[in-house]
Every structure is written in C-alpha cells, then in structure tokens.
Design a protein that fits this description.
The complex is a heterodimer of chains A (544) and B (268). By secondary structure, chain A is α+β, with helices and mostly antiparallel strands. Chain A is 30% helix and 21% strand. Chain A has 16 helices and 21 strands. In chain A, the strands form six sheets. In chain A, strands 11, 12, 13, 16, 17, 18 and 19 form a seven-stranded mixed β-sheet that branches. Chain B has one domain: MetI-like fold (Orthogonal Bundle), CATH 1.10.3720. In chain B, helix 3 packs antiparallel against helix 4. Classes of the chains: A alpha+beta (544), B mainly alpha (268).
Chain lengths: 544, 268
C-alpha cells in the first residue's frame, strides 16, 4: 500500500512536470507558412502549406506517430486489414463530434471515402489508393463500423489513412466542420491563416483536461526565410521547420537553447548520369555512363564526409541509398555509404580500359574524360557540393564543368530534351512507404530519371528492380515487402544509377517559451504533437 | 578636382597592376580547397581568411578582380562600338533610318535583359570550360548593353548634323562618309569616351548581379559576382568582417571610374 502511494506521488510529480497547469494553457502560437495555401479542402491538398492546415485541422482514422513511426488509432478505435490488403474494416470511437457540434458517425467516413475515391475529383490523396481498375465498395453496416473493399490489394493500406481527413456528411459548413484540434477561423489572402481551438476535440490529457492547450495558431504567409529568422529572433514566431545549416549556425550562436538538430532527415541530395539512349551526347560518353564500374568509381572518388562537414557544417550524414536511416523500418541496415577511395576508383576505371597519366584520365579510345554537371541556380549548397565534387574528381583526372541553370531550363533538359550529362538535385521524401517511390524505380515510369519511360527494362538489374517493386506492392505482408525492398536498395547500391551523396539533418528552431515540444524528422517536424504544446511561464513568447 | 581625378587614376592603376600580376601575389591557387579550415579568420597563411569551401579569399579576390576588371572594359568597348555605329549613323542620317534605329533601341531597352541572359545561358552548350563561360558572359553583356549609349550618341550626332561646319562641308561637296568620319565622329569622341567609362562599372555590377543569381562566371573561377555571394552568409561575415573586402574593392573601383570622368564629358 505504501509502495502504491509512493508510486502515485511519483507519478503525479512526473505528470506535473509534463502537463501544464490550467493557468498555463491558452495563448496563441505563431509560425510561418512559406507559401499561400492553395486549398482548404483536405481532399485536394497537394502542397506543403495546405498540408500543414490539413494536419492541424483534420481528424484521421489512423495516425502515423511521427516519433515512433508506428500506426496509432485516432478516430478509429481499431481496424483490421484482410483479403491480402483488399479489405479494411474500421470500428470507430463513440461519442465524438465535429467542431460545429454535429455528431461523428460511420456515415461521415463512408461519405469521405466515396468522395475521395471519385475519379472526377482528381484527389491526390485519393490517387494513392488506386492500385488497379475497378470500383471501391464502401459500406457502413452500423453507426460505428465501416468496411472498405478495393478491387486489388493496396500495399501499406492502413498508412494511407494518415492523410485522409474525415469530412462531415451532414454539416452545412463542411470546410469548418473538422475533427482535428483546430479549425480555420479566419483567412486573409497573402497575409495569414488563423486557426482556433476546436471546442469538441476528443482527446484529453492525463488530468482529464480537454486538448489542445493552445487557444489559437496564427500562420503568417511569408516566403522570405531571412525575415522568418529575424522574426524568430524577435520572438514574433515560435517555430521554424526545415532550417538551413547556415541559418541554424547563425541562430545557434545567439540562442543555443532554441535550435535543435534532430538527426538525418528523409531527404537526400543525389546525382545521376544520363543513360537515355537517344540523348544528344557523344556515344563514347554514353558508354562511360552506362558502365556500373564508371559510376561506382565516380561515387568512390567523392568524399561524402567532406560534403557533410564543409557544405552542411556537420549537419548532414553520408547517404547510403534511396532510404534514409531516419526511416526506421524500411532502411536496409546491411548497407554502408560508399567510402572515399580514389585509388579504388582508379582501379575500377582501369578494369574498364581507362588510363590515368597523373593529370588526365583517358578512356580506351584516348578521349579525355570530361563532362558537365547541371544543377539549379541559386541553390548555394548544391553549387558548393558541385565545386567540391569537381575537386574530388580532379584527383582521378576527370574534368568536371559546373553549369547552373534556372529551374525551368533544368527540368526541360532532364525530362524533355535529355541534353545533359550529370545532374545534381535533391530528393524530398514525405512517404515512409516504398510505394511512394514506385514512380522512380519502375523502368516504365517518367520519373525513372536516368533513363525514363522504357518500353522494356534496358538492363537485367532494372528488370529485377521492376520485379521486386511489383512484388512488394502486391503483398500485405510487411516482412516480405521489406525483404523485397532491401534487395532493391542493394541493387541500387551496387549499380549506382543514382549516386546518393548526403542526407541533410532535420534542423529546427523552437522558442524556449514553448513547452512539451519533441521535434522529429518526419513532417511536420516541430508541431506533430500540436495538441500537447503549451506556453510555459518562463521564457518569452507572444502567446502569453 | 584634378587632384582627386589623379588619385582615382593612380588607385585604379595600382589595382589593375595587382590583378594583372595576381600569380605573383596570390599565396595559394584560387581553386584550392583547404577543407580543414572553411570560413577561417585572417591569418598569415590566409590574409583575408577563407571562404565556405576553405579557399583562400585573398587569392580569389586578386584573380576575381582580374576577371572583372579586364573583361568589363572589353565588354564596355564592344557595347560602345555598337552604340557608336547605330547611334552615330541614325543621328547623322536622320529621317526614317533614325526612327527605325531609335525604335529598335527603345525595344531593346524595354526587354527584360536579365531573363534573356538567363535564356541564352540555358541554350548554350553545357561542356563549356570556365574561361569560355567567362568570355561568353561578358560578350553577352557587351552585345546586349549598347542601347542606352546609342540614344546618347544619336542625340549628339543629330545636333551635329545641322551644325554650321557640317553644312559647310556638305555645301563644298564633301561625300557623306567623309563628313561622318572627319567631322561628326571626332566631335562625338567626348560622348563616346564618357559612355565607355560609364559602361564599365555598369557591366561589373551586372556580372556581380548574375553571380549573385548563380548564373555568372562558373566555378571554380572567381569573379566579383561570385565573391559577393559569400556575403549572403551574414554569420560568416560577422565572424570575419574581412569578407567584405570584395564589396569594398568594388565600391572603390566604381567610384574611381566615376571620379576620373571629366565633368564636361558628362555634359556631352
């Protein structure tokens, strides 16, 4: 009994440190949207600003916990996937209401899914559910049960519901009737979006206090990142997501308590050689670029550690492949980044008939090895990476010309005219599941950048990637999918169609006035647990 | 006033000479990356410190100044020559030729040249060595930068067209080309000289602007535009104020060019 009392006292002390007193709740959180939200309709979201609004206002059946990356029940108390990923059944929580007070039921889920999967709506969220031709059957056998049947198995089906914000079938104001912690109260185009606390939000804290703690969130629309940093320093905003390394360092000197390096993000910087057969480049260069030995040699000649240390001030990690180590389940842990080994690179090149005379590398026909790297103008870190790669390749006698192009010209070259040799760009990954990368790895896809839209796979290893990607997409067994995608990662590591360079760290700034923060690498980094954030009495902030 | 002009000319001369013999003064190759010491403060080894990639800033400033100071006058000479040809002929001939030439000049001035330069750069071959990209950049600046000067020259030639000595030369049966070469052009020389000197800092600044957009001279060759991009990292500038040296040198050079211009040439 004494032990139990002590445990209760300890638990209450612990909770009092984590949870705010009633007087500490309230206040207005400020941060910045870097673009105008294109829509407030959760079904039509296809860019980051609208995605932020959807995350803060939308209630979903299942949520991916941004910290553990595991699935957690939200509006659905439980769910079950059956028929090898063709069918999913939800059992909903009881007694929930939309922000306008109308009750939530299975009819709302059925209404949302029917609307979302209507081909005429062209919903980007709905598109991710479409695995094959045929209609989707949605049924609500009771007020708390929903059954959805797809014409073919959908890999990673339950994860897709993290993006599906349920809308009301009965409320007259569908845009403002939400199930998330906040609701849109005011919007001034080009200026701000004001979100107010949803008084009917269903979650409560351990004390039984209804969440969220904050009264409102003001999202100022502002593109200029210098101004964003300045406003943070002034205390006008309390959060910054996706900080650049230079801004991070700048802020760290002035406010070390405000900056957070969360570790490697899902995003990667990578480059690839043009392997398109019809590309307007000389045949001898096409021969170099199609050689795995050549690509591996270039990869090994680059010092990824130097790129991380010099360009990103240490806020990056050498990249291994298409999956970042931040992706806890799907990352193939048996792979390591290619080491910086110029001598090994030269040995590989000699195997392919190249000769190095101490200054210039020549191929078997006597051509000096020289090619260009294109990247988008104005991206300082990529320009710096290109300059460092230029010096690294010079060590093995390769002359690299750096060309920076405005973005439309660059896209024209890499996707229409194919008039380029090597391209350096970034890969922004928002989806943990490999299905999100289908359009990159299938040889028939237009995003198969090194040689897109192939009628049949040009190489045996591309055929194998096609097979493995199809295999992982057609089974609901996560372990089997993982085995297939691990093999894809291994093939990419061996063949280097994309030469992965670095995974930038997720960097954020959080005002010390904001409590209960727990930034993570997944989007939205700093406010994924927005309902639990509150202003502490210490520190500063406009919210108090 | 003459003393100030002389000081400006001497200062420009010193800067020109220092950049011309950059190899003798530079402590390190401009492209060499000292990766262990990026953003280093000034030291005996690196007089102005290093940039983000660890390259010696003093060496890059010397070589970058050579690039900007030698090629900007060349581009200015090209632009002024085109302006002299178009403006001189149009102003002297008058009539429909002047109207067409000035309409072309107005059109040229109204075009968004920055975007045109971006477009032209985008369609150029990719495998262009840095030195060639440098020449292309300044050649484009010269080819596109003649319009404003052409208007000034045209106005000058027009005023000369009906002057007494030109009318007298024509009345004496002097052929038009001879009148243009012997009587009109020599009298336009002060205006041409002024336009040439005005164009030099304009082209230096344009290249700097292109550099800030990442579209000027390609890596690893330095230029003032590329060096000024280093100022974007204000934290590094605060840590090492000597990184402002390219900006200071640019201000000195542009001011010197303005100071050495004779006032009467401006009037022309």
């Amino acid at each position: 009994m004494r032990r139990l009392t002590l445990a209760l006292i300890a638990a209450s002390i612990l909770l009092s440190g984590v949870l705010p007193a009633k007087s500490q709740s309230g206040g207005e959180l400020h941060f910045v949207l870097r673009a105008e939200p294109k829509t407030f309709d959760p079904m039509l979201v296809d860019e980051e600003a609208s995605e932020t609004i959807r995350f803060l206002t939308g209630g979903v059946l299942i949520r991916v916990n941004r910290k553990t990356q595991a699935l957690e029940p939200e509006l659905a108390a439980s769910w079950k996937v059956s028929q090898r990923g063709k069918k999913i059944s939800f059992h909903l929580r009881d007694g929930l209401s939309f922000s306008d007070g109308t009750p939530f039921s299975a009819e709302d889920v059925a209404f949302t899914m029917r609307k979302l999967l209507d081909p005429n709506l062209h919903s980007p969220t709905g598109d991710s559910f479409r695995s094959s031709e045929g209609s989707v059957r949605v049924a609500a056998p009771s007020a708390r049960d929903v059954i959805i049947e797809f014409p073919a198995p959908v890999a990673g089906l339950e994860r897709l519901f993290d993006q599906v914000a349920i809308v009301s079938s009965r409320s007259p104001k569908k845009e403002t009737a939400v199930l998330g912690p906040f609701t849109v109260a005011e919007y001034k185009s080009g200026a701000y979006v004001l979100l107010k606390r949803n008084p009917y939000y269903w979650k409560k804290d351990a004390h039984g206090q209804r969440l969220p703690y904050l009264d409102s969130i003001r999202l100022d629309i502002q593109q200029n990142r210098d101004l964003e940093l300045l406003r943070f320093k002034r205390g006008e905003i309390q959060l910054i997501n996706n900080l650049d390394a230079s801004y991070f360092e700048n802020l760290a000197k002035e406010e070390p308590a405000a900056v957070r390096d969360i570790g490697p993000s899902l995003d990667a910087e990578h480059m690839w050689f043009n392997q398109v057969p019809a590309a307007p480049i000389p045949d001898f260069k096409k021969k170099w670029f199609r050689s795995a030995n050549f690509r591996l040699a270039v990869s090994e000649a680059i010092s990824r550690e130097d790129l991380c240390r010099v360009v990103f001030s240490g806020h990056a990690r050498p990249a291994v492949g298409p999956v970042s180590p931040a992706n806890l389940f799907w990352f193939n842990r048996s792979l390591q980044p290619h080491p910086h080994a110029p001598q090994e690179a030269l040995r590989r090149l000699q195997q392919d008939g190249f000769r190095f005379d101490g200054h210039v590398l020549r191929d078997g026909e006597g051509h000096a090895v020289e090619f260009s790297i294109v990247t988008n103008a104005g991206n300082k870190s990529r320009e710096q990476m290109a300059a460092m790669i230029q010096q690294d390749l010079e060590q093995i006698g390769i002359r690299l010309n750096i060309v920076t192009l405005d973005f439309p010209s660059l896209i024209e070259r890499i996707s229409r005219t194919f008039d380029y040799e090597l391209c350096l760009l970034g890969f922004v990954n928002v989806d943990l599941d490999p299905n999100g990368q289908m359009n990159v790895w299938l040889s028939s896809s237009s995003n198969h950048q090194w040689n897109p839209e192939q009628k049949s796979p040009a190489t045996p290893w591309e055929a194998e990637i096609d097979r493995l990607m199809q295999a992982q997409a057609s089974t609901p067994d996560q372990n089997q999918r993982k085995r297939s995608f691990d093999q894809v990662q291994k093939i990419v590591w061996d063949q280097q169609p994309f030469i992965y360079l670095v995974n930038k760290n997720a960097l954020a700034a959080i005002s010390p006035a904001l409590a209960n923060t727990s930034p993570v690498v997944l989007r939205p980094q700093t406010f994924w647990n927005v309902e639990s954030l509150y202003f502490s009495n210490q520190g500063r902030g406009v919210g108090q | 006033m003459n003393t100030i002009r002389q000081i400006a000319a001497v200062l420009l001369g010193i800067i020109f000479l220092a950049t011309l013999f950059a190899g003798a003064f530079a402590p390190a190759p401009y492209a060499k990356q000292f990766r262990e010491s990026p953003n280093a403060s000034p030291s005996r080894m690196h007089l102005l410190g290093t940039d983000e990639l660890g390259r010696d800033l003093f060496s890059r400033l010397l070589y970058g100044s050579r690039v900007s100071l030698l090629l900007a006058p060349a581009a200015a000479l090209l632009a002024t020559s085109i302006a002299a040809l178009v403006g001189g002929l149009a102003g002297y001939a008058g009539g429909w030729l002047e109207r067409i030439a000035m309409a072309g000049t107005d059109l040229s001035m109204s075009l968004p040249w920055l975007f045109l330069l971006l477009t032209v750069r985008a369609v150029l071959p990719l495998n262009v060595p840095p030195a060639a990209s440098l020449l292309i950049t300044f050649a484009l600046l010269g080819l596109f930068g003649w319009a404003a000067s052409a208007r000034v020259i045209c106005a000058g030639a027009r005023s000369l067209r009906n002057s007494d000595f030109v009318l007298q030369a024509k009345a004496c049966g002097c052929p038009s080309l001879r009148v243009l070469a012997r009587h009109v052009l020599p009298n336009l020389r002060p205006a041409l000289f002024a336009q040439l000197l005005i164009s030099i800092p304009v082209f230096i600044l344009t290249e700097a602007n292109l550099g800030i957009l990442g579209l000027g001279v390609s890596e690893p060759l330095p230029s003032w535009g590329g060096l000024l991009r280093g100022l974007e990292n204000w934290g590094a500038v605060q840590a090492n104020p000597w990184r402002l040296a390219p900006l200071l040198l640019l201000l000195i050079v542009v001011s010197c060019f303005q100071l050495i211009l004779p006032r009467e040439d401006f009037a022309a």
